[in-house]
Amino acid sequence: MNAIVSNPCLLFRGATPADVAAIVALVESAYRGDVSRKGWTTEADFLEGQRVDSAGVAEVITKPHSRVLLAERPSTGSGQAGGLMIACCHIEKQGDACYFGMFAVNPELQGGGTGSRMMNEAERIARDEWKCVQVEMTVISIRDDLISWYERRGYRSTRVFKPFPYGDDRFGIPKRDDLRFEVLAKAL
């Protein structure tokens, strides 16, 4: 289940509980605060506060039919174990579909193909290991640039919208009152 899969200059592996703090830091850096503005995935203009917390990440790492996938650059030093975590996502088998979320790439490395490679690996697991026929995700509907990025990778709007969890600080503190999630899907 947590097999290491290599890809030129990237290693993919399933997260373990020992990775929780690094995953939280990566996701926060990609979406919240000033450091997130180095990349294009920032939500800092319309959300503040946390994006994820340690308890939530630990829960999805250990949940059945769920995996937090990590992309690492192999270490170059001798005697070092593992590598530098540069991307992550959460995938979860839900019947014949796979949910894709908690997708983050180090903001200083965005735009270099890591995100596409991470998505390809997540889709491979969903299709080949879990025998899913579709991948689904939710995206904040005002994120036109992000939705366009997913559309270029074959995702389409389902025209299903879900409310943003206003009042639940676990998902951030909204700076505007028109946030909602749009469900995107891709056939495998």
| Strand-pairing-aware structural class | alpha+beta
The level 1 CATH classification is Alpha Beta
Instruction: State which percent range the strand residues make up.
Output: 25-35%
Compute the separation of the termini in Å: 21 Å
CATH topology: Aminopeptidase
Which outline best applies? globular
Count of beta strands: 10
Low-confidence stretches: none
> Going by CATH, what is the homologous superfamily?
Gcn5-related N-acetyltransferase (GNAT)
Q: What order do the strands of the largest sheet run in, or round the barrel if closed?
A: 1-2-4-5-6-7-10-8
CATH architecture: 3-Layer(aba) Sandwich
The main sheet comes to:
8 strands, mixed
User: What number of structural domains do the residues give?
Assistant: 1
Q: Percentage of helical residues? A: 10-25%
Roughly how many Å is the radius of gyration? 16 Å
Q: Could you report the average pLDDT, rounded to the nearest whole number?
A: 91
Verbal overview:
The chain is an alpha+beta fold and 188 residues long. It has one domain (5-187): 3-Layer(aba) Sandwich (Aminopeptidase). It is built from 4 helices and 10 strands. It has helices spanning 20-31, 54-62, 114-129, 144-152, and strands at residues 5-7, 10-14, 47-48, 66-74, 83-94, 97-105, 134-140, 156-163, 173-174, 180-187. The protein has an 8-stranded mixed beta sheet with strand order 1-2-4-5-6-7-10-8, with helices on both faces. Helix 1 packs across helix 2. The protein is globular and about 40 Å long.
